[in-house]
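DM between two lab members

TW: hey, do you still have the Transmembrane protein entry open?
JB: yeah, one sec
JB: this one, 174 aa:
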Amino acid sequence: MTRLAARALLAVVFWPSLFFFWFLGPFVFFLLSTTSSEVCPRLETRAEFLAAANGTILMLAVQSLAYAIPILCLLLWGRLLPEPARARQIVTCVKLFAAAIVLGALWEYGSSLVCDGYGQPFFSPLWQMTSYLPIVSLVINVPLYVLAFSLGRAFSTREDVSADDGIHPEQNVL
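TW: and the structure you got?
JB:
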């Protein structure tokens, strides 16, 4: 019974965190972590510009920790119900998550550096290449979301209730 309670508790944490952090969170954190268009015209020197971009690092760290909650739930579920096939999927999920975090941080930090004051290029054009990272991130995040969702569904479904235990509509009980 304690395993069932632990699984239920993990499900209560996993599903809201998956929805709010993974599906809604990127929009909120992106707005908070990048240098906004209102700040850019006020930055005149390279030092001010870099200080504003470096101010986003703490927000990126907090964002990464919040995004890790569903992954931690999957790891805990994997410890509660060890199964080799699911363990491999969890490892794949962790690898995809790590790649998504690195790409997301590079994109958000890089987009902070792309804003260039009065049209003066303060930084290398290499940072402008970070504008393509959302496409790469999407290629990684779609399989990650599908895999995390399917693992969460598999872990949060009770195994002691089978689909055949219910009464089917075609069966008449008299």
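TW: got it. The two ends are 34 Å apart (CA to CA). Residues 2-158 form one domain.
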